[in-house]
Write a structure and sequence with these properties.
By secondary structure, this protein is α/β, with parallel strands linked by helices. It has one domain (22-416): Endonuclease, Chain A. 40% of the residues lie in helices and 22% in strands. It has helices at 2-18, 34-44, 61-73, 90-104, 115-120, 127-134, 180-183, 202-218, 252-262, 279-290, 308-321, 355-360, 371-385, 393-397, 401-412; strands at 49-59, 78-83, 108-114, 139-143, 162-165, 169-173, 191-192, 194-199, 237-244, 267-271, 294-300, 325-329, 333-334, 338-341, 345-349, 363-369, 388-390. It has a 15-stranded mixed sheet, sandwiched between helices. Strands 7-13 form a two-stranded parallel sheet. Helix 9 (252-262) packs parallel to helix 10 (279-290). The longest helix has 17 residues, at 2-18. The protein is globular, with a radius of gyration of 21 Å.
Length: 417
């Protein structure tokens, strides 16, 4: 056992050192407004910023599914869905029934789910479920099936949540297809999350991501003008779609996140459920604190993965000691993955600020440059603060020595968590 632990720690240290490579970062001494500085960085990285978008924040799973189902009902040409999992429960059955009806009407329906994500939930889609869904005219594809030798499939998983309808409306964020997003989870309480509805030119970028993954996995060549209708000028928001594809741009997401923080002039507000960030993210947050930027971090007091909350508490406590306001959400499990910078821009997506998301998985976030959308997200987070408590030294010291030791151990394993 001692040898195994020693090897795990050695592996973690090697990965940690490897993650310390430098990259071109925004310096806070710049004279540009934070949004202008961050936009310049994205453009220099060849990440397109689309204009004339409308982004609607969907506060919770009830809002997401009500809105999405309404749009799916009106679909005329195609419906594309990419999720970490479709849990075999009641909300999934409602969705499948709706998709089957649209397929019957002649609408093309393609759905992609992650094999590991499916296996890891307690109500997976089994072979007979998948066959029954396909029999209803829905093309359902499993990303990277878990086959022998198994271990080679365990690293990079498709953690995205993307839906595109007729190439005109898209959804992305943190909400999978599962009942517990609506009803909560036993022993923890309600499951808190945020999603977005997107219209405008950014929809084509989300369509690109889905079709690239679909064609790669199926060998098909789906594409063409029918999937990319001319978008209307939907709104005033500029949107950058940032996608992490292992093997193509493995460092992009963490570098974009770090530079989004580096550009801040006044404040950064972060909400992340499995907050065991890589060094590049910690460095950006610490630099913001040193430069007098107000940093607010909302973490979840309880979690659904053993030991991880102990690491979250420990890391949150470290940032608190450096001057961050750290809020521990105790109204259930806060699964939201969002960030606001100044009053200028925000991000919502599937990316957790941990090694799994930033180093291994396929992830997608949208970065939205719109003051009203950013204020709307601040308003949502202000309500979440009412179900949180401010972390203090006294509160942290009340945790048992064992829980604090577990936190120390989890932090050592940051590179593989």
């Amino acid at each position: 056992m001692r040898t195994i632990l020693k090897n795990i720690l050695l592996f973690a240290i090697i990965l940690s050192v490897a993650s310390c490579s430098s990259f071109k970062a925004i310096e806070r001494g710049h004279t540009l407004h934070s949004d202008e500085a961050f936009k310049t960085y994205l453009q220099n990285e060849n990440i397109e910023i689309t204009q004339n978008n409308d982004v609607e924040l969907l506060n919770g799973a009830h809002a997401k599914f009500a809105d999405m189902f309404g749009v799916i009902k009106e679909a005329k040409h195609h419906i594309h869905l990419e999720y970490f999992n479709f849990r075999n429960d009641s909300i999934n059955k409602v969705l499948i029934t709706l998709l089957a009806q649209k397929a019957k009407e002649g609408v093309e329906v393609r759905a992609l789910f992650d094999a590991f994500g499916n296996m890891s939930n307690n109500k997976p889609l089994k072979k007979e479920h998948i066959e029954a869904i396909r029999a209803q005219g829905i093309e359902l594809v499993k990303f990277d099936p878990i086959n022998f030798p198994w271990v080679n499939h365990s690293v990079s998983r498709d953690h995205r949540k993307i839906v595109v309808v007729d190439g005109l409306v898209a959804y992305t964020g943190g909400i999978n297809v599962a009942d517990y997003y609506l009803t909560g989870i036993e022993g923890i309480g309600k499951w808190r999350d945020i999603h977005t509805r997107v219209e405008g030119a950014a929809v084509a970028k989300l369509q690109d991501i889905f079709l690239a993954m679909w064609n790669c996995e199926t060998g098909q060549q789906i594409g063409g003008y029918k999937y990319y209708p001319q978008p209307a000028d939907a709104g005033d928001a500029a949107v950058a779609v940032v996608d992490r594809w292992p093997g193509k741009n493995p460092k992009q997401m963490r570098q974009v996140y770090a530079n989004a923080i580096n550009a801040a002039k006044d404040s950064v507000t972060i909400v992340s459920p499995y907050f065991v960030p890589l060094r590049v993210i910690r460095k950006a947050i610490n630099k913001a604190l040193e430069d007098g930027v107000k940093v607010n971090i909302m973490l979840t007091a309880e979690g659904d993965i053993p030991l991880v909350p102990d690491g979250v508490w420990r890391i949150g406590y470290k940032f608190m000691k450096r001057g961050a306001n750290v809020y521990m959400y105790n109204g259930g499990f806060n699964h939201s993955k969002v960030m606001c910078v100044d009053d200028s821009y925000m991000t919502v997506g599937s990316t957790n600020l941990n090694s799994r998301s930033l180093r291994y998985d396929y992830e997608t976030n949208i970065f939205v440059f719109d003051k009203q959308d950013t204020r709307d997200l601040y308003d949502i987070l202000a309500q979440d603060k009412k179900e949180s408590f401010l972390l203090t030294k006294e509160i942290y010291k009340e945790r048992s020595w064992w829980r604090r030791f577990c936190g120390f151990f989890v932090e050592l394993l940051t590179p593989i968590m």
